[in-house]
Specification:
This protein is an alpha/beta fold. Helix content is 42%, strand content 14%. The strands form four sheets. Strands 1-3-6-7-8-9-12-13 form an eight-stranded parallel sheet, with helices on both faces. Strands 2-14 form a two-stranded parallel ribbon. Strands 4-5 form a two-stranded antiparallel ribbon.
Length: 368
């Protein structure tokens, strides 16, 4: 398939998606959804569709790449299901990709069209990680649209992972992002912007490294999960006075993301506002809502909504994050609201579908 043909197909899909998004009544497309949890359990995909109901048009579909170990010497008969429940390590669980592919393939075509499966079962500190991603695409053609969510620096998680700890400067990560560009895969990357419980008065620890990484991969569509925030990695807003009366001012999170959106070298980068831990920062006060809405209204093409729901069991818990954002939806322009909830997802993943299917078609005879 020629480059011109691919561009034409992308344009057709994007135009069709834009028309359908304007006509349909879905509340949102979910850019961040985990079918399984940290012990690889969760509903089957048919049950997930029932939980999503009629309010969700399309959704990403991925597991969690890390398995929480149950070490008897650590927790005895207590079987931990979450990484905060034990000191035992986490390890990469590559079978998650086969599980997601089989779940997706179990659906009829109309239901498959509502999901964008993602590859997650690789170690981002391993130079063979890109080979794993390539092998999954060749083994399950017609299934995957991207990679992630996978984590580099994540509060309380990174230090628990067995083996080498991932970093933003590891060449293995560069090779992963290079291959994503080659194959047309969307990347959902979790990287905390700062370390947990960081002191005020300094630039967030990982901001410079993250910007350098993003700039090294201008052909890769990258979604920075949660805009870099987390459970205890919150937006910096403190203002105070430094030594000898000198002003000391933290970089404010909204200003940081504003700068990234305005940077012409980072046009390939988007941000998701998934997770209830992120929502709590945005809807904390009328002032935080106004600041977030102003940012998104100025850059409506750069943000996506996601639930970050993990192995949901009922519709009420699944929709909870969307409902938390009610003040934000009211503060956005109609154009920005539609793009964040629906349109940006369709644009990004429609493009990915075409590009990844073209890559697969060109590599059908690749050795597995």
């Amino acid at each position: 398939m020629s480059g011109r043909t691919i561009r034409l197909l992308v344009a057709i899909l994007v135009a069709a998606s834009s028309r359908s998004a304007a006509q349909r009544s879905d509340d949102f497309n979910d850019s961040h959804f985990h079918l399984t949890n940290y012990i690889q359990r969760g509903p089957d995909v048919a049950a997930a569709l029932t939980i999503m109901g009629s309010r969700v048009g399309r959704s990403t579909l991925f597991g969690i790449p890390l398995q929480q170990a149950w070490i008897y010497a650590n927790s005895g008969d207590y079987a931990p299901t979450y990484y905060l429940e034990t000191d035992a390590p986490l390890y990469y669980y590559s079978f998650t990709d086969a599980w997601i592919a089989m779940q997706y393939r179990s659906l009829p075509a109309a239901a498959q069209a509502r999901f964008e499966p993602m590859i997650t079962g690789f170690n981002p500190a391993d130079m063979y990680a890109a080979d794993h991603i390539r092998r999954v695409l060749v083994t399950f053609p017609g299934v995957f649209s991207g990679i992630g969510e996978f984590s580099i620096h994540k509060e309380f998680v990174s230090g628990k992972v067995a083996g080498e700890i991932a970093s933003l400067t590891n060449p293995a990560l560069d090779s992963i992002l290079e291959f994503a560009a080659e194959a047309g895969l969307v990347v959902i990357l979790h990287n905390d912007i700062n370390r947990p419980f960081a002191k005020s008065g300094k630039e967030p620890m990982y901001l410079t490294q993250m910007k350098e990484l993003l700039r090294r991969h201008p052909r890769t569509t990258i979604i920075w999960a949660h805009t870099g925030l987390g459970r205890v990695v919150g937006p910096t807003q403190h203002q105070g006075t430094g030594g000898a009366g000198a002003p000391m001012r933290d970089p404010r999170h909204v200003e940081i993301i504003e700068g990234l959106c305005a940077d012409p070298t980072l046009r390939h980068v988007l941000f998701d506002i998934s997770w209830d831990e992120v929502a709590k920062y945005i809807v904390a006060t009328p002032q935080t809502v106004a600041a977030a809405a102003g940012l998104i209204n100025r850059h409506p093409d750069r943000f996506l909504f996601g639930t970050d729901n993990v192995a949901p069991t009922d519709s009420a818990s699944y929709y909870a994050v969307f409902e938390m954002y009610a003040p934000l939806w009211k503060a956005l322009t109609s154009d920005a609201s539609e793009k964040v909830r629906l349109g940006n997802f369709a644009r990004v993943f429609d493009q990915a579908r075409v590009r990844v299917r073209a890559w697969e078609a060109a590599h059908r005879t690749m050795e597995r």
